[in-house]
């Protein structure tokens, strides 16, 4: 914790204007009265009921001040997580950072992705086919495009594309461009998934896909798996992982591929092949086509987009195409921008070119067309997702619009149903969350000086409107300026960093507590709040059924009929009768509102996880309260910690526990299993993180450091040249002329250089630990420092820089030479009783080198030359481990021959023995 606190003390520094700042005409204002972090003055406004209103900067400054008081860290945690300090409630008002008329912005336009449907493969390039497709490449997320068709089950109108069975059969032009076969013939309303089952996969491959390729290119098909099952058998490894193969098909065959598949399925008696079409998806290409917002630039860039991705002119004319058009706005300075929630209406009205009535209808909090995505837990700044529907699609015929900030890109890491890095309750329960929390904390602090957040708006429109939307921004620049806030980057990221820092401290205290205290309802609810809270810092807070159950227990509550819709954490009806606009939407032209949540960037608990109704709050009989965010940022209800509180917990003991279903969703186990884990943890001793990992089966391969010389030896000049490693030269063995073999065969000096550096790294990695798992290693180097050791480490005679305790003696030249012979023997071997040699990578590599020399003529002379070079390097070290025949490090006490560095353990306690070079003296 002290390390984290010191990092925060140095995290903030006032921005010093450079000449570039003065010359940049688009840099936003920096008001004289705005206090940057590091300054102590905070001016506040008192709101209703004595609530003190702070800007984001002022909130961060106060948090910094409280975090610096090591004796009252609980005060900091409670302020950051609940907004309460010295009995006073604070609120955060991001609108104090609103941009004004004098502020300037930069805007660039781009095309982020393309979606298209076509009967044929309209590509002018070779493609990579997937005989057996990956299940994760199936389209299962809402793309807001609908199809109408007739099959054997009936006639269907406006079916969402992601509901129609499909599979990815090919990729082209990079990993992000996918070609999917969409099979309407398999669709029916009762079908549970758009993925094909195993029988359907096998039928498609064996009766459609493979026969089609065979008819077009018999030579290519000869290398394809005979059956679907045969490919699964071949692809499955010993541990169950799949390595599916791919095949290339030349562009000359692509135009006929669609017909060939449909004909093959028909001829083989598969009726659902009729109507098969292809879905093209090009995504993540905004960086390669950014352009100005003029109409001319928009048209030229759109043409280039299709040319670069090899879409033929025929495909452009005969296919149905939708384009995601993006507008990205930056400050041009060191600020993060975010959308004002109260200006969603204005931006969407302009982008879609729709009237006030429709804009109001689809941007109201109660609208099923509109979802808000809180930004950094703030309610006054948020992104949103809108599915306009036919009546509000406007002249551009937009089918989808989203507004967001680019800061989420630093944690973008798709995994399962998550889009960003995420923490689970199971990891917290098992005391495994510390690495994630500290990693997230480090990410935020690193980003504070390097990543400026931009604001984006994207709209999905048909191809014919792609060049006419989001253009000529200069005429409405003031609209976008008024719709944004601008916050110094260091403040923006530190808002998140302080909140993760508070939970690092809370979870650490909880982990140290006893099982019975941690299993208390109030403490366990605070534990359960952690993953929801922390994941929501960079993603939209989860609002699925289980998470709603949790929010009812951890957030402030308000009477349903008194709730302000803008303060609710998730959409909920606050009236017994719907509004007029709600009645209008109930009869709207589509069901997009029910689908839009599928496209969220956050993960929600499954709709099947409906929880039993618990009383949402303690109150009068019949009262109905809902969770809300009354103070501008998500604050938890009152927390108790410090002042004798061993395990941090929520204060109000009357709030009931969440349902068993919710516990299972958060922690991956029910209440009884949670109790077992908590009580088990209090008897498990945590391993000291500063111990060396010297019990590994093989030391890690060292990564070369920047700017280090590639060669520190010169034995090649003495005529030492290595031949190739022994290998089977049979005709059935494919040749391998890899660079690695070339180095092994020819470059002896580079090989010895890598071997020597690995030797230094390995003896450090094997530094001994103290006996207890809770105690640190004798080696005081941090894990990062151990990864960066060099010869200089073993030339530093200040032993306390390396050891907390050790035994040392001045070696004779004979002892030094004997140690060299053990580290670099003429005939390397590993005895059954040895402790270190067999697991050191360098020692195995040395054995391979000696063995390789023994297969060559003049082996003895070359080995002598190599060892002479190594010995010269070895003699330049100032100290080394007192190596033994069976171990590298020896710790048995020997006060008669060795002097002691530390005094606290006594003369008979174990400590690593080291040898000081015969002409040097240890500095202790």
Name the beta content range.
15-25%
Q: Rg, please?
A: 33 Å
The coarse overall form would be globular
Largest sheet: 11 strands, antiparallel
What percent of the residues sit in helical stretches (DSSP H or I)?
25-40%
Structural class: alpha+beta
Poorly predicted regions: 1-41, 576-587, 593-622, 728-745
Please give the domain count.
4
Total DSSP helices? 29
In total, how many beta strands? 29
Distance between the termini: 29 Å
Strand order of the largest sheet: 11-6-9-10-12-5-13-20-17-16-15
Mean pLDDT: 83
Region (Disordered): 1-45
Structure commentary:
By secondary structure, this protein is of the alpha+beta class. Mean pLDDT is 83; it is low at 1-41, 576-587, 593-622 and 728-745. Helix 16 (489-512) packs antiparallel against helix 18 (521-535). It is globular and about 95 Å long. A hairpin with a 2-residue loop joins strand 24 and strand 25 (645-650). It has 29 helices and 29 strands. The chain folds into four domains: 2-97, no CATH class; 113-317, no CATH class; 331-681, no CATH class; 716-916, no CATH class. The longest helix is centred in the middle third of the chain and has 24 residues, at 489-512.
Notable traits:
single chain, globular, 32% helix, disordered N terminus, alpha+beta, 924 residues, 11-stranded antiparallel beta sheet
Strand-helix topology:
Layout: H1 2-9, H2 19-23, E1 45-46, E2 52-54, H3 56-67, H4 73-82, E3 84-85, E4 88-92, E5 106-118, E6 127-129, E7 146-151, E8 154-160, E9 166-171, E10 178-182, H5 198-216, H6 218-221, H7 228-235, E11 247-249, H8 254-267, E12 277-283, H9 295-308, H10 313-318, E13 320-330, E14 335-339, H11 344-352, H12 356-362, E15 370-375, E16 378-386, E17 400-405, E18 412-415, E19 418-420, H13 425-429, H14 434-447, E20 455-462, H15 477-482, E21 484-488, H16 489-512, H17 515-518, H18 521-535, H19 545-554, E22 557-559, H20 580-586, H21 592-595, E23 625-627, E24 639-642, E25 645-650, H22 660-667, H23 671-681, H24 739-746, H25 748-765, H26 783-787, E26 807-810, H27 813-823, H28 841-854, H29 859-874, E27 879-881, E28 899-900, E29 913-916
Parallel strand pairs: 2-4, 26-29
Antiparallel strand pairs: 1-2, 3-4, 5-12, 5-13, 6-9, 6-11, 7-8, 9-10, 10-12, 13-20, 14-21, 15-16, 16-17, 17-20, 18-19, 22-23, 24-25, 26-28, 27-29
Region (Disordered): 1-45
């Amino acid at each position: 914790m002290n390390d984290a606190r010191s990092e925060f003390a140095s995290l903030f520094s006032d921005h010093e204007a450079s000449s570039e700042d003065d010359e940049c005409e688009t840099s936003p204002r920096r008001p004289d009265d705005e206090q940057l972090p590091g300054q102590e003055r905070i001016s506040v406004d008192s709101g209703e009921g004595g609530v003190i209103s702070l800007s984001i900067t002022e909130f961060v400054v106060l948090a910094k001040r409280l975090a610096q008081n090591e004796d009252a860290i609980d005060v900091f945690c409670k302020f950051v997580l609940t907004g309460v300090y010295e009995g006073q409630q604070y609120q955060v008002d991001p609108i104090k950072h609103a941009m004004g008329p004098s502020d300037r912005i930069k805007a660039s336009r781009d095309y982020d992705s393309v979606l298209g449907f076509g009967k044929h493969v309209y590509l002018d390039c070779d493609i990579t086919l997937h005989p057996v497709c990956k299940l994760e490449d199936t389209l299962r997320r809402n793309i807001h495009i609908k199809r109408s068709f007739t099959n054997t089950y009936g006639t269907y109108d406006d079916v969402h594309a992601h509901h129609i069975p499909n599979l990815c059969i090919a990729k082209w032009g990079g990993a992000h461009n996918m070609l999917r076969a969409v099979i309407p013939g398999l669709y029916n309303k009762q079908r549970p998934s758009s993925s094909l089952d195993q029988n359907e996969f096998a039928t498609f491959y064996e009766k459609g896909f493979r026969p089609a390729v065979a008819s077009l290119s018999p030579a290519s098909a000869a290398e394809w798996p005979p059956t679907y099952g045969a490919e699964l058998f071949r692809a499955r490894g010993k541990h169950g992982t799949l390595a599916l193969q791919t095949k290339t098909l030349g562009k000359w065959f692509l135009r006929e591929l669609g017909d060939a598949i449909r004909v093959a399925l028909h001829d083989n008696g598969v009726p659902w092949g009729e109507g098969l079409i292809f879905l093209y998806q090009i995504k993540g290409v905004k960086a390669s086509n950014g352009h100005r917002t003029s109409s001319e630039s928009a048209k030229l860039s759109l043409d280039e987009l299709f040319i670069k991705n090899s879409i033929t002119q025929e495909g452009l004319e005969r296919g149905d195409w939708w384009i995601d058009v993006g507008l990205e706005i930056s400050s041009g300075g060191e600020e993060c921008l975010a959308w004002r929630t109260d200006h969603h209406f204005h931006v969407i009205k302009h982008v879609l070119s729709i009237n006030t009535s429709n804009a109001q209808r689809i941007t109201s909090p109660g609208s099923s067309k509109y979802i808000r995505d809180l930004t950094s837990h703030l309610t006054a700044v948020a992104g949103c997702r809108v599915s306009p529907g036919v009546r509000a699609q406007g002249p551009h015929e937009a089918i989808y619009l989203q507004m967001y900030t680019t800061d989420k890109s630093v944690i973008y890491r798709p995994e399962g149903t998550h889009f960003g890095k995420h923490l689970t309750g199971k990891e917290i329960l098992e005391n495994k969350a510390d690495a994630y929390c500290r990693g997230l904390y480090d990410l935020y602090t690193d980003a504070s000086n390097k990543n400026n957040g931009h604001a984006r708006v994207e709209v999905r429109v048909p191809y014919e409107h792609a060049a006419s939307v989001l253009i000529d921004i200069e005429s409405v620049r003031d609209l976008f300026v008024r719709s944004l806030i601008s916050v110094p980057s260091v403040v923006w990221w530190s808002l998140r960093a302080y909140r993760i820092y508070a939970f690092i401290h809370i979870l650490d205290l909880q982990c140290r507590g006893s099982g019975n205290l941690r299993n208390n309802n109030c403490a366990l609810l605070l534990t359960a709040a952690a993953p929801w809270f922390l994941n929501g810092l960079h993603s939209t807070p989860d609002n699925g059924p289980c998470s709603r159950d949790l929010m009812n227990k951890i957030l402030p509550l308000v009477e349903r009929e008194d709730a302000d819709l803008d303060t609710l954490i998730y959409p909920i009806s606050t009236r017994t009768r719907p509004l007029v606009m709600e009645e209008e939407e109930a009869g709207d032209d589509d069901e997009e509102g029910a689908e839009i949540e599928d496209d969220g960037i956050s993960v929600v608990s499954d709709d099947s996880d409906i929880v039993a109704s618990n009383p949402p709050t303690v109150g009068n009989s019949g009262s109905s309260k809902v969770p809300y965010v009354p103070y501008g940022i998500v604050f938890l209800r009152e927390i108790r910690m410090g002042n004798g509180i061993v395990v941090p917990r929520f204060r109000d003991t009357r709030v009931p526990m969440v349902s068993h279903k919710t516990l299972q969703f958060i922690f991956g186990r029910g209440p009884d299993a949670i109790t077992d884990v908590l009580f088990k943890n209090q008897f498990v001793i945590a391993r000291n993180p500063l111990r060396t990992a010297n019990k590994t089966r093989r030391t890690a391969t060292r990564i070369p450091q920047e700017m280090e010389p590639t060669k520190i030896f010169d034995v090649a000049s003495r005529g030492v040249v290595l031949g190739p490693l022994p290998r089977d030269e049979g005709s059935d063995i494919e040749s391998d002329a890899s660079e690695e073999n070339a180095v092994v065969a020819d470059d002896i000096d580079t090989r010895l250089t890598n071997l020597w550096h690995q030797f230094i790294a390995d003896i450090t990695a094997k530094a001994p630990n103290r006996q207890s798992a809770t105690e640190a290693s004798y080696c005081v180097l941090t894990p990062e420092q151990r990864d960066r050791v060099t010869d200089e480490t073993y030339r530093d005679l200040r032993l306390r820089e390396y050891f907390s305790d050790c035994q040392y003696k001045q070696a004779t030249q004979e002892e030094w030479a004997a140690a060299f012979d053990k580290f670099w023997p003429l005939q390397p071997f590993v005895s059954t009783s040895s402790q270190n040699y067999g697991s050191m990578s360098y020692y195995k590599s040395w054995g391979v080198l000696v063995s390789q020399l023994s297969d060559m003529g003049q082996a003895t002379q070359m080995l002598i030359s190599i060892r002479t070079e190594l010995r010269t390097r070895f003699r330049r070290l100032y100290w080394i481990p007192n190596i033994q025949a069976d171990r590298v490090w020896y710790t048995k006490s020997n006060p008669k021959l060795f002097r002691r560095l530390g005094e606290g353990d006594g003369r008979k306690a174990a400590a690593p023995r080291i040898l000081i070079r015969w002409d040097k003296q240890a500095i202790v």
